[in-house]
Specification:
4-stranded antiparallel beta sheet, 3 helices, 120 residues
Length: 120
Amino acid sequence: MRRVRFKLAALIFATLLTLTAPALAYVPTMRDTGMPEPMVEYELTALPEGEGEFTLLEEAGDLKVYYRDDRDLFAVVDSRNGYTWKSGLDVPFNQVIDRAVNYADTPEEKLAAAIPKEEN
């Protein structure tokens, strides 16, 4: 009789443990139906040539290859349709933003230079 009780208690304990253990912690999966992350909006700009901007490296047929030294960025422009490929994000580095904010003379200049880093 004692063995039967022990086996029955062990069976009940094992059943309760297996039923409650998954409910103790939430594990996110690919089947979650939460809202997606907000989309990043990126404003396309022209590729002006000059100091601190894009410099034309090569032109071959309908393609032009540009390079921007201050951001280590390559850009290829298709002159037929104006489509641009870039090797990275065309946003200032954090040090450039910090320097512009720290050395700005007026509050308006600080506000103009303080691009939120989270948006980049």
